[in-house]
Amino acid sequence: MNLGIRGSAAVARGTLMALRGEEHIPEVILCPSFTALSEVRKVIARSKIDLGAQNMAWEKQGAYTGEVSPRMLDEVNVEYVILGHSERREYFCEDDEMVNKKVKAAYQNHFTPIVCIGESAEEHDAGETQETVADQLREGLKGVTLSSRQRLFIAYEPIWAIGSGEPATPSEVAETHDYIRGVVNQVVEPKRAEQVRILYGGSVDGENAYSFLREEEIDGVLVGGASIKLNEFVEILDAAGDVMEGLEEGEI
Ligand code: PGA
Fold it and tell me: Of the four, 4, 32, 145, 198, which is 20 to 30 A from 180 by CA?
């Protein structure tokens, strides 16, 4: 709930410009607030940038005042939807059961869900990170099977790292991602593993993005605060491009 229509469109335009002519173009999904979706869609039309929403109701339509349905998102050609962000869980009482309904609704409507999971500071300090994310995955993905064309994005976001300026270390994240992949393989069929992307989120910025993206286990980043400052966001895009180049040249 930071940028409005104008600010979101400006980030979208800046992103387009930053990627123009680049040799290595990372997969970029912009997820503005609901009110800015249409405008951002117009800006990124005919580009490779995709559009995502930050939340979604699980019901198709009806008396659910204040909610935004999958059909409504479909009208603006949304392709992705962030589900179960820790702020949704903390301030709006979303639990794993609701996240599960939303994940299923996302697939029914041909969206790719970006399912957020992550432990609190207390859970982290108590060494309960793996247990926490495993529970969130088992409950949130219960009954979900992927067809050969469907993708699943998991965003591992330790709550203590979100907006705090104190990210987790890349090696700690890589270890947790490895564990998450194992759990996802158990929950969703292992043969679909290559359709599952595991992102890291939590105080990613222009300076540290490369150190996360270069880790083999980290498939991408979910960026909050740094995505609303264009300069910072462009640095993250550059870091992603550098990693792609390094991979191609066998340096990573
Ligand atoms: P941050 O936010 O990048 O500002 O830490 C991440 C998020 O809200 O998902």
Answer: 32
